[in-house]
Specification:
Number of strands: 15
CATH superfamily of the largest domain: Queuine tRNA-ribosyltransferase-like
Strand content: 15-25%
Shape: globular
Strand order of the largest sheet: 4-13-12-11-10-9-6-5
Largest sheet: 8 strands, parallel
Structural class: alpha/beta
Number of helices: 15
CATH class of the largest domain: Alpha Beta
CATH architecture of the largest domain: Alpha-Beta Barrel
Length: about 375
C-alpha cells in the first residue's frame, strides 16, 4: 500500500497536530524526526541501532545511490530495505539538492533537466525529473520525492517565479512516469520567503494530488530563521489536512519546535550525526563538545534523564577519551545520543499537543536551551 496519514488531535492554541503515518512497515506517530542515511547507511551505525532509538522513517539519497552502487544493483538486491537491512519505512530525496550544488551556472539548468559533473570523478551527467523518479522506483523506497529546483536564498523574486513554475512542470513530468504501485510520491513547495510565490506553489502542487507535501528551499544555504518560518506559514494553509507535511533538511531543535507549532509533521537532517563526528552532543541545556577538558573526569552520562543506549551505558569521561584518542566508537555513541535526542523531542511534542500545551512546552524548552552552551 501507499502511505496514509491519520490526524488524531490538534493543539488548541497553535497549528500543531498529532497523527499517525501508516506504512507497509507499520504505523508511526507524528510529529517525527527522520534520521538521514545518505548512502543507504546512517554513518557508523547499524539499522538495528537506529531502530532501537525509536526511528520510524529514515532517508537515503537518490543522487549518491545512483552513482554508487547504482540503482540497478539496489533493485537486484531486492530494493533498499533488503539492501540495507532496514525493516522500516524509507524516504528517498530526489537528488535535486546535490545536483544544483554541483551545477556550475544557470546555463546548466535547462527545461529538460540539469547538467552537472559527478563529485566522484568529474564525469558529465544529466538528471531529469523522469530519471529521478525512475531511479527512486528502482530503489523501492516507501516515499519518493519529486525533482525540484533548489534556488539559492539570494535569488530574486523574478528568478524564483520562473523556478517555481519550472518545478511545477517537473513535478507533473515526474508524476506521469511514476510506476511503483507501493511507493508514495510527495510534491515539493518552493518560492523562497515570498508569500505570493509560496501560495501559488502550494496551490498548484496540491492540485496534482500527491500523497504528501514537502516544504523545500528552507535549508539550502543562507536562509534565515525568519525566512524559514515565513516559508512554512505561507505554505501550510494550502496543504490538505489528510496529507503529511514535511519540512526538508531541518534538524535544529528550536526549528523543529517552531515547525511543529506551524503544522509540520515530518523533519529530517544530517545534523545529529554530523555534529557527533565533531564530538558534539545535544542536551536540554544546549550543545556540548566532549573534547572539552572539563569532561575529563566527568563520570556522568551526557544527559541524566536520557534513555538512549549511550547515556544508559557510558559517561562523558569515557566518550571524551574515545574522541580525543581518535576512536570511531566515540562518534558512533554520540550519533546514537543525538538521534535519540531529536526523536525524543518529537515524542515530547506529541504529548504537548495531546495536552494542548505546545506553547508552554516551547517556553519551558527555551528557558533551558542555549545553542552556544558548552
Amino acid at each position: 500500500m501507499k502511505i496514509k496519514y491519520e490526524l488524531h488531535k490538534k493543539d488548541k492554541n497553535t497549528l500543531g497536530r498529532y497523527g499517525t503515518l501508516h506504512t507497509n512497515y507499520g504505523s508511526f506517530e507524528t510529529p517525527m524526526f527522520m534520521p538521514v542515511g545518505t548512502l543507504a547507511n546512517i554513518k557508523t551505525l547499524t539499522t538495528d541501532q537506529v531502530k532501537a532509538e525509536g526511528s520510524a522513517v529514515i532517508l537515503s539519497n537518490t543522487y549518491h545511490l545512483w552513482l554508487r552502487p547504482g540503482a540497478d544493483i539496489v533493485e537486484k538486491a531486492g530494493g533498499l530495505h533488503k539492501f540495507m537491512n532496514y525493516d522500516g519505512p524509507i524516504l528517498t530525496d530526489s537528488g535535486g539538492f546535490q545536483v544544483f550544488s554541483l551545477a556550475k551556472n544557470k546555463k546548466d539548468i535547462v527545461e529538460e533537466g540539469v547538467h552537472f559533473k559527478s563529485h566522484l570523478d568529474g564525469k558529465k551527467l544529466f538528471l531529469t525529473p523522469e530519471l529521478s523518479i525512475q531511479i527512486q522506483n528502482k530503489l523501492d523506497s516507501d516515499i519518493a520525492m519529486s525533482f525540484d529546483e533548489c534556488p539559492p536564498a539570494s535569488a530574486s523574486h523574478e528568478y524564483l517565479k520562473n523556478s517555481v513554475e519550472r518545478t511545477l512542470r517537473w513535478a507533473a513530468r515526474g508524476k506521469a512516469v511514476h510506476s511503483n504501485p507501493n511507493q508514495s510520491l510527495f510534491g515539493i513547495i518552493q518560492g523562497g520567503a515570498y508569500e505570493d510565490l509560496r501560495n501559488f506553489s502550494a496551490i498548484e502542487t496540491v492540485k496534482m494530488d500527491f500523497d504528501g507535501y514537502s516544504i523545500g528551499g528552507v535549508a539550502n544555504d543562507g536562509e534565515s530563521k525568519e525566512d524559514m518560518y515565513k516559508a512554512i506559514d505561507y505554505s501550510i494553509p494550502y496543504i490538505p489536512e489528510n496529507k503529511p507535511r514535511y519540512l526538508m533538511g531541518v534538524g535544529d531543535p528550536i526549528d523543529i519546535i517552531e515547525g511543529v507549532i506551524r503544522g509540520v509533521d515530518m523533519f529530517d537532517c544530517v545534523l545529529p550525526t554530523r555534529i557527533a563526528r565533531h564530538a558534539n552532543a545535544f542536551t536540554r541545556k544546549g550543545k556540548i563538545n566532549l573534547r572539552n577538558a572539563k569532561f575529563k573526569e566527568d563520570f556522568t552520562p551526557i544527559e541524566e534523564h536520557c534513555d538512549c543506549y549511550t547515556c544508559t551505558h557510558y559517561t562523558k569521561a569515557y566518550i571524551r577519551h574515545l574522541v580525543t584518542s581518535g576512536e570511531a566508537l566515540g562518534g558512533s555513541l554520540l550519533s546514537i545520543h543525538n538521534i535519540r535526542f531529536l526523536i525524543r523531542l518529537t515524542e515530547d511534542l506529541r504529548e504537548a499537543i495531546k495536552e494542548d500545551r505546545l506553547l508552554e512546552y516551547k517556553e519551558e524548552f527555551l528557558k533551558e536551551y542555549n545553542w552556544k552552551h558548552d
